[in-house]
């Protein structure tokens, strides 16, 4: 990193390098600090409860509607993954954003960052250490919640599939780290926790509201012919039907939403895959050549990009500001 | 080789000039008192020394290394007590020290360090419940980790009672005897005079005096402090008094009525004459042998005078 070309008067020196020992020390301290608060255990209990309650509900409805116990009927880990991911897709970003919110802006606001940086750490060490520390809080609480819940879930579900269950856990961790990176990075851009909070609320709105609205808007604009869609044909019993789909770039926008990527990544990691019908429709819509950004592997690229890109910007900028 | 060289350091925030071409040196092995009222630019200087902020112009060298390009190497050999900093509420004193020891790769023992600062009995209590003085002791202990070559203490007496301040000075002396250079900022003269070899006085981002404590005392014992109560005072009159040959410094104290505090080394009548010449009515005046503290006052009192 010391070879990085600097803009302005920024240091191009050993001072802005990354030292793994420093990163480890900061991450450890940060994790310890969160571990002591109610946050860690609160999150663990939350994830545990979520899985147990969902499994319970699925079993209950199975009995009510089909009159059989879950073990005999079709309540599978796959079903649990689908149900749980509806909740985790919305809740994990919220948790990650709150966890990362004050990671750096809070230390700058209170001045305690001077304690960290009076010691021989670089500013890059601080960002990386904080990211790892906060990601660890989220990841370890997910693991603790999942592991304890596994006992109950396995008892309730006849065909407990460890691979699916671990797949959900692993993808949730990846998804959580993406949002933690976004939050810690934004937190490093300002000295004010108020501004950082507002910016993170903006991120929350962006992916919960705006992103969907964009897709809706594109659909609407297409309906009124402001945007020309791409025509495709479907062969049916009644003959050929002419249909229209959104242009490729609209699908690209949709695909880079971390939540969308999370769902797709889940379909790779677990057997809760996209329905065969869904895949078939895509095949038809894109005339057999589905673009790379709609293929499942691309969702991993999206999630990794949401970790790396904000982090790179933060690492670059944080070296160049007055604390 | 000086332990610290500040060379033409300027720092501006937009239109506000926090430091203006500040230059001074701290010799290796000395205890240097960095004195000035709040807002004079002491913390700004220390922030540049530690690379927390970047200078607008000028250079800072610490332990022979550039403060910006070699900040990590510098901080590996420096112990810092930052100003008015909060501790990590949920971590104990032991954990704070373990973090500093791990960060510096030293072999210190948390208990020994906490015993030195008188915090051993609170070693396993969370810092969130500490008083201001206890937090300050903890921060001092963290600064001592790794036997640093340079100690930078920013307002170390904040929150300490007189006894605590004395113990702090004791530690400064011990560290200095070990061979460490100590750079010590304060806004209270009596805290630095007891322990510092040399003192630099900062006002409005500029160094107005650098001398040994004896030197400052000598300059004082020759002179006297003249207090003149006047009906009004303005900038021009103050400048005129300051430019008199026997006057080393002058400042205004109070408003109703304003008092002019003047350091004179010779004729006091020249001062009174100058004022009368400008039609300023002298209501009263007195002279005293100036104390070191008063020198500081006159050096650092604000230059601005409210015209009446």
TrEMBL record, chain A:
Instruction: Please list the GO terms describing molecular function.
Output: ABC-type transporter activity
Q: Tell me the keywords, alphabetical order.
A: Membrane, Transmembrane, Transmembrane helix
Q: Which domain of life is it from?
A: Archaea
* Positions of transmembrane segments: 38-61, 81-104, 136-159, 165-186, 193-214, 297-318
Instruction: Name a single GO cellular component.
Output: plasma membrane
Descriptive protein name? ABC transporter permease
From TrEMBL, chain B:
SMART domains hit by this protein: AAA
Pfam families from the xrefs?
ABC_tran (PF00005)
Q: Which residues form a coiled coil?
A: none
The family database entries (PROSITE patterns) matched by this protein are listed as: ABC_TRANSPORTER_1 (PS00211), ABC_TRANSPORTER_2 (PS50893)
Which residue range or ranges hold the ABC transporter domain? 4-229
Instruction: Work out whether the entry's keyword set contains RNA-binding.
Output: no
- Family annotation (CDD domains): ABC_DR_subfamily_A
User: Does Transport show up as a keyword for this record?
Assistant: yes
Family matches, as Gene3D superfamilies: P-loop containing nucleotide triphosphate hydrolases
Q: Which UniProt keywords apply?
A: ATP-binding, Nucleotide-binding, Transport
Q: Which GO terms describe its molecular function?
A: ATP binding; ATP hydrolysis activity
The entry assigns this protein to a family as follows: Belongs to the ABC transporter superfamily.
What protein name is recorded for this chain?
ABC transporter ATP-binding protein
């Amino acid at each position: 990193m010391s070879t990085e070309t600097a803009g302005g008067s920024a240091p191009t020196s050993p001072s802005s390098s990354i030292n793994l020992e420093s990163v480890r020390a900061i991450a450890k301290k940060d994790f310890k600090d969160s571990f002591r608060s109610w946050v860690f255990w609160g999150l663990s209990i939350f994830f545990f409860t979520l899985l147990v309650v969902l499994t319970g509900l699925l079993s209950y409805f199975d009995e009510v509607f089909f009159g059989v116990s879950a073990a005999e009927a079709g309540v599978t880990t796959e079903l649990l993954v689908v149900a749980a991911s509806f909740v985790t897709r919305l809740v994990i970003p919220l948790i990650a954003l709150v966890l990362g919110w004050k990671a750096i802006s809070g230390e700058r606001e209170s001045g305690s960052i001077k304690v960290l940086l009076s010691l021989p750490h670089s500013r890059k060490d601080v960002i990386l250490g904080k990211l790892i520390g906060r990601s660890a809080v989220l990841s370890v609480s997910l693991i603790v919640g999942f592991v304890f819940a596994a006992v109950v879930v396995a008892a309730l579900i006849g065909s407990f599939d460890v691979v699916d269950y671990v797949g959900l856990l692993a993808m949730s961790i990846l998804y959580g780290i993406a949002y933690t990176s976004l939050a810690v990075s934004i937190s490093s851009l300002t000295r004010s926790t108020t501004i950082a909070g507002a910016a993170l609320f903006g991120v929350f709105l962006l992916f919960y509201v705006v992103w969907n609205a964009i897709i809706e808007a594109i659909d609407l604009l297409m309906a009124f012919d402001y945007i020309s869609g791409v025509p495709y044909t479907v062969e049916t019993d009644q003959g050929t039907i002419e249909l229209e789909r959104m242009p490729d770039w609209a699908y690209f926008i949709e695909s880079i939403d971390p939540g969308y990527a999370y769902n797709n990544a889940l379909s790779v990691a677990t057997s809760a895959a996209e329905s065969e019908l869904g895949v078939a429709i895509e095949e038809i819509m894109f005339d057999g050549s589905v673009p790379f950004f709609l293929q499942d592997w691309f969702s991993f690229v999206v999630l990794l990009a949401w970790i790396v890109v904000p982090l790179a910007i933060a690492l670059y900028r944080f070296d160049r500001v007055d604390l | 080789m000086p332990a610290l060289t500040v060379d033409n350091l300027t720092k501006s925030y937009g239109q506000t000039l926090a430091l203006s071409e500040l230059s001074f040196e701290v010799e290796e092995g000395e205890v240097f008192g960095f004195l000035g009222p709040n807002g004079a630019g002491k913390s700004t200087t220390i922030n540049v020394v530690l690379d927390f902020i970047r200078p607008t112009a000028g250079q800072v060298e610490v332990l022979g290394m550039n403060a910006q390009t070699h900040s990590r190497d510098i901080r590996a050999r420096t112990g810092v007590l930052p100003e008015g900093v909060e501790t990590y509420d949920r971590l104990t004193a032991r954990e704070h020290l373990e973090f500093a020891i791990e960060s510096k790769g030293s072999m210190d023992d948390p208990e020994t360090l906490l015993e030195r600062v008188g915090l051993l009995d609170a070693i396993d209590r969370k810092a969130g419940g500490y008083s201001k003085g206890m937090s300050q002791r903890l921060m001092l202990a963290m600064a001592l980790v790794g036997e640093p070559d340079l100690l930078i203490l920013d307002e170390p007496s904040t929150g300490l009672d007189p006894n605590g301040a004395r113990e702090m000075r004791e530690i400064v002396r011990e560290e200095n005897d070990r061979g460490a250079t100590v750079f010590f900022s304060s806004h209270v003269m009596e805290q630095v005079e007891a322990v510092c070899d040399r003192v630099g006085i900062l006002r409005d981002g500029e160094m107005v005096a650098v001398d040994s404590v004896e030197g400052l005392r000598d300059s004082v014992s020759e002179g006297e402090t003249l207090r003149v109560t006047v009906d009004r005072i303005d900038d021009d009159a103050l400048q005129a008094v300051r430019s008199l040959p026997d006057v080393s410094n002058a400042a205004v104290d109070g408003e109703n009525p304003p008092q002019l505090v003047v350091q004179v080394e010779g004729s006091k009548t020249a001062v009174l004459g100058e004022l009368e010449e400008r039609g300023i009515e002298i209501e009263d005046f007195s002279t005293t042998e100036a104390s070191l503290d008063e020198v500081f006052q006159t050096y650092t009192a604000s230059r601005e005078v409210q015209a009446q």
